[in-house]
Design goal:
8 strands, 2 domains, Cupredoxin, transmembrane, disulfide bond, transmembrane helix, disordered C terminus, about 160 residues, alpha/beta
């Protein structure tokens, strides 16, 4: 018996839901944290040591707050950081309130205005892997079908 249009749509929906469930169950759903660079002082002079007591994970957000036209944020490589040069800038932000999502690796940021970088308006930070997966309500570990699905108890 041939499937009608409705049967094909239902089959496609079922396959899509199964793929989504597999991605959710096998993927790593991690929470992220937002860090305001320079804390309450914001992005400005003497932020070079600000990252030292912090651990950054992939997916975390760096929030740069500063006075627009007085500062900017330039993502550079190690050479740009060490020599306070923006010649080979990776990206430049100048909104006064920038959010940068971190990937794993080492990141360098400097201010490209005048000689600001030379008075420690520059910082480097290492980013490690993603944070621990989110645990849904009703369990103390990542939920699989035997434990529940998205926090719903299947027992």
């Amino acid at each position: 018996m041939a499937q009608g249009k409705g049967g094909a749509t239902q089959a496609s929906l079922a396959i899509g839901l199964m793929i989504l469930a597999l991605l959710l169950l096998n993927g790593e759903l991690a929470k992220s944290e937002k860090f305001t660079v320079g804390d309450h002082h914001g992005w400005g002079f003497n932020v070079k040591n600000w990252p030292k007591d912090k651990t950054f994970h992939a997916g975390d957000i760096l929030e740069f707050k500063y006075k627009k036209r007085h500062h900017n944020v330039v993502k550079v490589d190690l050479n740009g950081y060490a020599n306070c040069t923006t010649d080979k800038a990776i990206s430049t932000y100048d909104s006064g309130h920038d959010h940068i999502k971190l990937a794993r690796g080492t990141h360098y940021f400097i201010c490209g205005i005048a000689d600001h970088c030379k008075v420690f308006e520059a910082m480097g930070n290492d980013v490690v892997g993603a944070r621990d997966p989110v645990v849904f309500a009703g369990g103390n570990r990542w939920c699989g079908f035997r434990d529940g699905f998205l926090g719903f108890d299947l027992h």
